[in-house]
Amino acid sequence: MDAPNFIDHDLWGSLQPLNETNLFRMDFLKIFSLITIGRHPQKNHFVLPGQRISNQHCEILWEDKSVVVKDMSSNGTWINEQLLGKGKSQLLHDGDLIAFGTAMPQDSEDYRFVFHTHTTDLQEFDRGELYLHYEISHKLGSGSFGTVSKGMCLATGEWVAIKVITPPKSFGKGSVKMCVNMAREVSIMSNIKHPNICELKDAFHHEHDGSLNLVMELVRGGDLYAHIQAGLVDDEDAARFITWQICDALAYLHSHGITHRDVKPDNILLTDDLPPIVKLADFGLAKIVDDYTMLRTDCGTPEYNPPEVYREAANGYDHLADSWAVGTIVFAMLAKYMPMTVSTDDPQRNELDDWDTLIGWDLLNESGCTLEGKQFTWLLLRSDPKERMTVKNAVKQKWIAPWLDEMRKTRDEVLAARGACRYLDYREDYRAEGEGEEADSKA
Length: 443
Hints:
Helices cover 27% and strands 22% of the residues.
């Protein structure tokens, strides 16, 4: 069918024909994220009648500000006069030339179009070594250390997250510290592998601007902070499964002498599975700790720092600082409030050695959580590190131990399912989200 020209705010993209004699503009409405183009009138949103057009020639998908074209034809789909190839996918950018059946006009058939984005917010980036292997789609987020963008691996079609860290132009202490953090993150993440730690897939250093580009596993479900705020951690079982995965990841790190030092809900990503798989991220502040070295840097996020961080100049601290952060997160998931009743700049944080009186235990009691949940949280939020539970021992507690085998089995099953389709392209991702009723009927 030939779509009319809708107002742009109703569209996510369009194909403008180079030859407007016999063809109309194809407008892609927001209500249809998947568009099919081909010769068969009953199987496609847009029909091209040419002899070199396949019954189902291609699919174009709009997904989270990205546009992907998949060639399904025998005679080919060309993007900027380059043959895509049957079964292959590629990102489509504003201004790209796309041709169906042939790259150049054949007699009266001219199926060349210019693609235009409307709401995809695609961006241009400087070229470099990274772009020989990956194509960047759009920005996912930004912070003081750089940006995170969504990208696609050119070799496999796999979606990834690309973290671009650019040091400040000045050569002051801040620049040196950032470079140290950059090198530390790559060094640590390239040597660890755990199902609950966000995987580092590749790293590139661009000499022209000094930036470091980290290609990370793309985790689609958002972070734990957003889940807590949205009320998605709605029962104790959900909190338990998330907590166990966090503890398992940290126990792995601690066994390798690594303290994270910035454990907080913002740095805990969740997959879009049900139940979600935890992916611990952001190792810029992590540091190797051995028996002879105590951490003495005031870092991390104040709301999740234990008492010893405030006294670090005198005594230092170790991996038990991560245990306190986990306790704060568990408290927040169970009670829906932060544990500390005073602000981060309250002098009592520095003056008091024992913070027990500063914690709102009544909030936890009123939350309705089990006695085992309260005990578990209490063991993590001990002011004296010597009394505080290690994340390794968390699995021995009554709040975790009876469910441990079941949680391990659940995680393994979800990971196995994800591994089976790890490198599948957008079509399978789309159907997993958009065809739930059909999938249920086949179960």
